[in-house]
């Protein structure tokens, strides 16, 4: 780590590729120092690391300045979640800092009082999780579509970083939150056997 003043610590790099975007924020003490959000239906795998490097440079920081990583773990696009979680785990190992996974449900429920059910709608149905005073009281679940439009709820990266900061000391490697199987399915065609010569 660098000799940054204590006021700029802890420094968290939060990122999200759970949908058709590549988003990241550098956050210190709950304050966003810099943020990027690029819409993209594909290409996040090629764009994520360069975007993170650019964002760090824009805020006057380097990889070695980070105290932790925060990654949105879902629900969301199967490939996007795998990409973000793999990047977070790899960067965590390489930089020697903890990586914390935060779900969209947790980010939307953070700071709430009383009972709350966070409900997300997508083209395949409804996703929900129940919370009490911001803490989960049930596992997330997927259900059939309801009479509600698809909604684009996304996790605020400042909130994701704030949650991650609370968990840094006991961070476990992040894992994707999959509530449904992937849209892609293995081919049903039989693979031809090669003749041995």
Number of helices: 4
As residue ranges, the low-confidence spans are none
Largest sheet: 5 strands, mixed
**Number of separate strands:** 9
Radius of gyration equals 19 Å
Shape verdict: globular
**Mean pLDDT, as a whole number?**
88
Order of helices and strands: EEEHEHEHEEEEH
Architecture of the domain at 6-111 and 154-170, CATH level 2? 2-Layer Sandwich
Structural class per helix/strand content?
alpha+beta
What percentage of residues falls in helices of 4 or more residues? 25-40%
Q: Going across the major beta sheet, what is the strand order?
A: 3-2-1-4-5
Proportion of beta-strand residues: 25-35%
Could you name the CATH topology of the domain at 6-111 and 154-170?
Nucleotidyltransferase, domain 5
The CATH top-level class label of the domain at 6-111 and 154-170: Alpha Beta
Distance from first to last alpha carbon: 58 Å
- CATH homologous superfamily designation of the domain at 6-111 and 154-170: ATPase, nucleotide binding domain
Domain Gcp-like: 40-110
EC number: 2.3.1.234
GO molecular function: tRNA N(6)-L-threonylcarbamoyladenine synthase activity
Keywords: Acyltransferase, Transferase
């Amino acid at each position: 780590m660098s000799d940054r003043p204590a006021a700029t610590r802890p420094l968290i790099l939060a990122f999200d590729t759970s949908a058709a975007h590549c988003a990241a924020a550098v956050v210190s003490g709950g304050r966003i120092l810099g943020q990027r959000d690029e819409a993209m239906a594909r290409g996040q795998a090629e764009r994520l690391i360069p975007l993170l490097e650019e964002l760090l440079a824009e805020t006057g920081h380097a990889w070695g300045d980070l105290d932790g990583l925060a990654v949105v773990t879902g629900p969301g696009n199967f490939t996007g979640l795998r990409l973000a979680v793999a990047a977070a785990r790899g960067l965590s190992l390489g930089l020697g800092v903890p990586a914390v996974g935060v779900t969209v449900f947790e980010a939307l429920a953070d700071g709430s009082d009383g009972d709350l059910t966070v409900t997300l709608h997508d083209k395949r149905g409804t996703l929900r999780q129940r919370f009490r005073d911001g803490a989960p009281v049930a596992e997330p679940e997927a259900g059939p579509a309801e009479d509600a439009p698809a909604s684009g709820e996304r996790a605020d990266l400042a909130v994701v970083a704030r949650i991650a900061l609370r968990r840094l000391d006991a961070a476990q490697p992040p894992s994707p939150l999959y509530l449904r199987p992937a849209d892609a399915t293995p081919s049903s065609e039989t693979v031809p056997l090669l003749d041995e010569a």
